[in-house]
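User: Predict structure, ligand LLP.
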Amino acid sequence: MDGTPFRYWDHQLFCDDADLTDIAGAAGTPAYVYSRQGIVKRFEAYDLALAGIEHRVCYAVKANSNLSILRVLAEAGAGFDIVSGGELFRVIRAGGDPARVVFAGVGKTRDEIEYALESGIHGFNCESEAEIALIDALAGRLGKKASISVRVNPDVDAATHPYISTGLRDHKFGIDIEQVEGVYQRAATLPNLKVEGVACHIGSQLLDPAPLQEASGKLLALALRLRTGGVPIRYLDLGGGWGVPYRFDDPRADLASHLGAIRAMVEGQGFTLFFEPGRSIVAECGVLLSRVLYRKTTPRKEFIVLDAAMNDLIRPALYDAHHEILPLRQPARGTIRADIVGPVCETGDFLALDREIPELFPGDLVAVMTAGAYGSVMASNYNSRPRPAEILVEGKTWRTVRARETFTDLVRGE
Ligand code: LLP
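Assistant: Predicted complex:
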């Protein structure tokens, strides 16, 4: 928990200066709670480490797209990395500047490309030649020149969960580094494009900086070769992917020294650096609050049944992800070993398996930690469960930034 906005104060778990028990009492559970200050601090850590070199930190909207969080980041000066028209709509709604938006993704539709062109985004990170041709055609029709980068697949093993590793030759992402120079030469002849960037993103939750630095080195070398070949590359987009310690005893890698190493690599060569961090900005600034409904003992096991489930936070079920779970009131009691599960009708509905945890009883409140990224955005209505409320803490005050869904919300549009 060190280095996060969460700490015990007089045996009660706080987010900054707000007592989470008060929030749970007033807002109900399950509820996501985020720290405004924590988010700004993490964004500024990127900005600070890159000060003095042309750069843009484009927050990856997919990690947490709540309008209030986007607004906080827009006010802090962030750009945005989007992967859909819906995300662009959110950025604009939140007051983000479209001119600071990069649009990634393997399957941009015609409508999405037009919307992005009309909104005046900074540029597209393209993932296939067919997409490049489509952007050129649509830009021509709208009388615009579109700035593009090609997302390069650098064939670097990101050493993370296979579902969120993206930089190997077998993955659907990017254009193979062996083939990409031809793609650049052909794209450079298209009339409605400015071909001016090289991009990559090799995966997410990376705890070792080595693969990120290897990919950056490959990208830089490519950008220099392209320049020599007459393609005036100005932007190097090194993606996101910086991981966070989900286990409190995991070591924390040093972001500033990682960014320093990349900076040393590219400094003085006239590139503007782009990064697309998501998780490292918001993950540790959010928790999912939940209440214990039941304790249940079978001949083999102990279960703690919460009111939060896999539909609220799917990461444990989907990626075997570990999230620490803390009682909001630090107990004087001993510990038990239990599976911590939700009410959904699947054995895969768990938040923790075989976890040693302070003894909990029905009515007790817990926080599922490190849930600010890929938590609420991946929530669903499975089992017709309304999605949780979302709360933003600022100092000792807090407000609801997304209302808990109602039963009427569940059937809207049916
Ligand atoms: N840029 C691109 C092109 C991406 O695909 C992603 C994440 C990011 C940036 C941001 O990566 P980050 O800094 O957050 O690692 N749902 C999964 C994570 C999926 C990540 C998808 N792409 C999870 O819960 O772990």
